[in-house]
Amino acid sequence: MNIQQYQYCFFGVVKREFLRFLQQRTRLLSALIRPLLWLVVFAAGFRAALGVSIMEPYGTYITYQQYITPGLCCMIVLFNGMQSSLSMVYDREMGSMKLLLMSPFPRPFLLMCKLIATAILSLIQVYIFLIIAQFVDVETPLLGYITAVPAIFLIAFFLGALGLLLSNLIKQLENFAGVMNFVIFPMFFLSSALYPLWKMKEASLWLYWLCDYNPFSYCVELLRFALYQQLNLEAFMVVFISTIFVSILAMFSFAPKRENRR
Amino acid sequence: MSILVENLSYSYGRKQVLKELNFSLTAGFNVLLGPNGAGKSTLFSLLTGLFETGYGEIKICNVDLIEQKRSALRLMGVVFQQSTLDLDLSVKQNLLYHASLHGISPVSALKNIEPILEQLQLSERLNDRVRQLSGGHRRRLEIARALIHQPKVILLDEPTVGLDTDSRGLIIEHVRGLAHELGICILWATHLMDEVSGDDELILLDKGQVRAQGRCDRLCDDNDTKNVFELYHKLTSSVELM
């Protein structure tokens, strides 16, 4: 196989993911409605109750809407990653996964193509959300939109790989509801998406530790800083290492069913 | 030799489903006949590299499937028992997606497949969504798709399941034609004895073992049976009595 053939394969897999995304118009709608409800309804209600003092990377006092925006962006990426996991389970049940696994290209490359396609879709959805968020008084520095691209891409890659891994653990489509309860909600709520961790520490130390060990918290912080043209090195390292670790596990989980040795 | 299987065994846990299979196939129309649960689908999963076993050897056109899996996969086209089409995409989109998985450009893919689509009467339906196609047309599309990368071997796992008699007849006729025209090896797995013709190369699989292999009419003569129905019952029941 030469580089051009790898290109055809890459664009073929990405195009299919896009076509499928376009077929599911409600997917885009629900991907945007969910965080917008949090931003417009939840954040407005809690604005008065939850004051956020000056903290990095913000140079001054910020509104609660401003604070939760990076968390909501990560929520979009998280849901998209899980949606792609759902579509993998669906593909497996419908049989079309066999086509992908029977391709003569290396399996890690094929899975990588899928992850990149998922990441691009996440990126598009996050930017649509960020544009709409401007109308709800969420101000992001103009350059922040550019510096956030690699951060969103890395986060999307991590969460997509996690979805890929989960898709191999979920044996039936019906079990997907469990992912909502045991993965999405704990990951989101036990993070710095909705409240700063120091506030959590004041409320409960063990909850703080749970949030602190949750890699999703680092996704949120990585994006929060990236939107202000800063690099949170600790967050970057945690997300980067988690991405590599989860990607390797996901690749291994797609190895053919092996019975015994020769 | 298009397909060579030597001492192939496979177990699900403690249950052995394939026992020391040995057979070889050349270009032409070959039938793998066996009842449900005979091990046909497991054998297909092994032949397509979806399962791997440590016992035995599989070679596709002299390429070792375990040692040189990617090269072997390039030589194969497969139609699975369960449809693997994306129902919400068009015929063309499904074909191009498959072509991309084999590193073929959209232009070359459409050029390769044009005569086959014509022959399978699908040319007019390129832009239709797969969901709009009948069961027979979907199967034809899967056959066309399996041919898009110009393989040397085509594996079809019970491709007529769920189709009416006319569609079944048409599909089997098309595939026999393709085997003859393209000079490729076709392995057609089925449990339907009326899909076997006298001049087909037959492998009779039962309870994970090959009971017989050879030209169907010769096997019937050798076993003093009039047709494949009798042959099947004689060979499978004789083993059961042992």
Biggest interface and its residues per chain?
Answer: A-B, 35 and 38 residues
Instruction: Determine the strand fraction of chain B and express it as a percent band.
Output: 25-35%
> Which architecture of the largest domain in chain B does the CATH hierarchy give at level 2?
3-Layer(aba) Sandwich
- CATH overall fold name of the largest domain in chain B: Rossmann fold
Classification by helices and strands of chain B: alpha/beta
Residues in helices of chain B, as a percent range:
25-40%
**Overall structural domain count of chain A:** 1
The N- to C-terminal Cα distance of chain A equals: 28 Å
Give me the strand/helix succession of chain B: EEEHEEEHEHHHEHEEEHH
Please outline the major beta sheet of chain A: none
Catalogue the unreliable spans of chain B.
Answer: 238-242
Oligomer: heterodimer
Domain ABC transporter (chain B): 3-232
Family (chain B): Belongs to the ABC transporter superfamily.
Keywords (chain B): ATP-binding, Nodulation, Nucleotide-binding, Transport
Protein name (chain B): ATP-binding cassette domain-containing protein
Overview of this protein structure:
The complex is a heterodimer of chains A (262) and B (242). With 262 residues, chain A is mainly α. Chain A is built from eleven helices and one strand; from the N terminus they run αααααααααααβ. Chain B is an alpha/beta fold. Chain B has two domains: 1-75 and 153-242, Rossmann fold (3-Layer(aba) Sandwich); 83-150, no CATH class. In chain B, the strands form two sheets. Chain B has a six-stranded mixed β-sheet with strand order 7-8-9-3-10-11, sandwiched between helices. A four-stranded antiparallel β-sheet of chain B has the order 2-1-5-6. In chain B, helix 3 (91-101) runs parallel beside helix 5 (135-147) and helix 5 runs parallel beside helix 6. The longest helix of chain B is centred in the C-terminal third of the chain and has 18 residues, at 165-182. Chain B is globular. The chains are: A mainly alpha (262), B alpha/beta (242). At the A-B interface, helix 1, helix 4 and strand 1 of A face strand 4, helix 2 and helix 3 of B. Strand 1 (257-258) of chain A pairs parallel with strand 4 (51-52) of chain B, so a sheet runs across the interface. Chain B: It holds the Pfam family ABC_tran. Chain B: This is ATP-binding cassette domain-containing protein.
